[in-house]
Specification:
The structure is a homodimer of 402-residue chains. With 402 residues, chain A is an alpha/beta fold. Chain A contains nine helices and 21 strands. In chain A, the strands form four sheets. Chain A has an eight-stranded mixed β-sheet, with helices on both faces. In chain A, strands 4, 5, 8, 9, 10 and 11 form a six-stranded antiparallel β-sheet that branches. In chain A, a hairpin with a 5-residue loop joins strand 12 and strand 13. Chains A and B meet through strand 8, strand 9, strand 10, strand 12 and strand 17 of A and strand 8, strand 9, strand 10, strand 12 and strand 17 of B. Strand 12 of chain A pairs antiparallel with strand 12 of chain B.
Amino acid sequence: MFAIICLFLQVKIIMTMKREFSFLFAIICSLNITAQQVSGSESVTLKLTAPDAHQVSVNWQFQDIAMERDSAGCYSVSINGLEPNFYTYYFTVDGIRALDPANPRTVRDLGNIFNYLIIGNGIADLMRDRHVSHGRTEQIWYPTSDGRERRMSVYTPAGYDKSTADYPVLYLLHGSGGDELAWIELGRAVQILDNLIAENVAKPMIVVFPNGNMYQDASPLCYDISINGKIKWSDRNTRLSGKFETAFGDIINFTESHYRVDKSKSSRAIAGLSMGGYHAMHISHFYNQMFDYVGLFSPAIATMYDPNTTNTPNAKLAFPVNEQTPDVYRNVERDLAKQFGSEPKLYYISIGSDDFLYPENVQYRTFLDKNKYPYLYIETTGGHSWDNWRKYLIDFLPRIFK
Amino acid sequence: MFAIICLFLQVKIIMTMKREFSFLFAIICSLNITAQQVSGSESVTLKLTAPDAHQVSVNWQFQDIAMERDSAGCYSVSINGLEPNFYTYYFTVDGIRALDPANPRTVRDLGNIFNYLIIGNGIADLMRDRHVSHGRTEQIWYPTSDGRERRMSVYTPAGYDKSTADYPVLYLLHGSGGDELAWIELGRAVQILDNLIAENVAKPMIVVFPNGNMYQDASPLCYDISINGKIKWSDRNTRLSGKFETAFGDIINFTESHYRVDKSKSSRAIAGLSMGGYHAMHISHFYNQMFDYVGLFSPAIATMYDPNTTNTPNAKLAFPVNEQTPDVYRNVERDLAKQFGSEPKLYYISIGSDDFLYPENVQYRTFLDKNKYPYLYIETTGGHSWDNWRKYLIDFLPRIFK
């Protein structure tokens, strides 16, 4: 590996965070990232040495921020008032996206690569790799009843291999455009699980991360699925086709036959974000005696509704059915009645007040209220983002399998 | 995941390769990658729309190549005469490294992120994800005898979970600066294994990818190990300390107690590249009755020699020992005699003719010849690079466990 030293890196790779070192470096441009905390509020200074560039900005959490150039061609910006959290960013140099040469930590969202920083303590600590007992993470292929091999990720908790006990299982579903790697890469699910289990805040559990895009056997980074040369990260037709929900038995069967699993209802949970919330909602009423714990994180609910009443909070709930309606959506109200009739231990809904799916979630809760179906509702600030989904996972995990 | 659409991507994500599509697109700048084949010789055209940039080049396989700008601000370059292979590249835009917005496929080497393309058929097909039966890949933590938890990757082949058979194990070691992810990320080991096993060219086997850096418990991307703010990808002192070799029993013990393993000598193999070749050489003579198959890919041998004779092909081999010499290096000639006395089925050495480690490998082979220790020697073109290591793995796998 001697041959791989990058010859063209113009900036020294130096990174520091105040909490992780006992000293601070002098702030020169070669020190690219400096994170500081002033009474609970975090700040970060990002720097890029780019003497030949004409315009440099940083995209910080999807917001472009201009960077100032000094006489030596060092661009910098300080961002203040940050809460402890997991943050993503990238630079734009003369119109072209560039990663931070000072920060080797990157994460993918769809086909885009971002740098990330975990800043501060508290909730941010739960997203870090820490020296606790670790679970195992694997990518495994399961056979489907229609003869395909599809990939999913599976987390088994620390102690699983030494134990002879049966474990509860959480099925954790990604959103539109995600895949079986999304919760692991962007969701920090492995770190969150390791840390909450090590702290005895969450029960040791197996977590299964399926791929909810039925036109894919695995992430498009594995098998290239391109349409006119453009990678197909998501497909509206298949994601709402009911096929994933109907075929979910394949995933449960494989999990329960390949891992030491407690097969009782009280040891099964299903949760998902956005499209995955839609999937979790439908799977849990379709398999209505299977799951004692259901988590809907910023769930997409809209397509359940009569288009005429969408976005009207007090509209009458409707589940229109026509000849094309897939089985799983055919008897939603009847199946929900069966699901709530058997009293799930937790039906959890969380959403941010700025989420564009907020109105249809009001409609859904109105329906649940009207039918006296009990649920736990968590409303946060913020919108439809991983910022919220990581927090919802951290909030949800301690509540299940108790 | 609706919120994560990249707002600032100036170039459409379009990628095509002639072999994977039945048609070719018109070559406009928004079509960034075009791969073509003319009678066995591959070519690739790379394009980047960067109207605000002043200088754009591509670093293709560690070589900088200028790109030409057209009147619309589209930079492009064609590279011809390519063999089928796995290729890495990145752009440099006004002095700053940038990934290709048209290609979401990236791979990490140390802290540097590269785009990659797999071009052509033949050997390149073995590096692709193909629709064959797949093995499982996992990251797992094992306890060490000195009380640490260290991470390794493990591949179990297709059919492992359904079978009740015991499997042979290959321990596959990375080079200096690598970690437990290197063979999986840069080495395409999972794809190569899946494909060769599916073709019945290699035996189904378990492959264990340890972390050979004893100062790390896991990749520095997991636990941040920084010195003065600089991530410590490698450490010369600990990598030649003999600690990894001596403690290798921890890895074997864990593997043989957690997987269904054939524990006979004829079902154990060890191989490694560069520093990993050094490790494999020393581990296999230290545990000299354990491995019937040994693979040294571009191995570092130098430190075995008397410094006075290094790089002199005909120099007398010497294993200098002083008070600080670790146990594992204390009786190298005696242990090699024991190892070869029990007649390993394969002692494999491969190296490129341009490798800077070539002279010391001549010395080592001279020593083996003198002692009539049989080995298989494969010499290729090229140097100390992943290009060769992937090929050596493809060449080595069919030769073991037969």
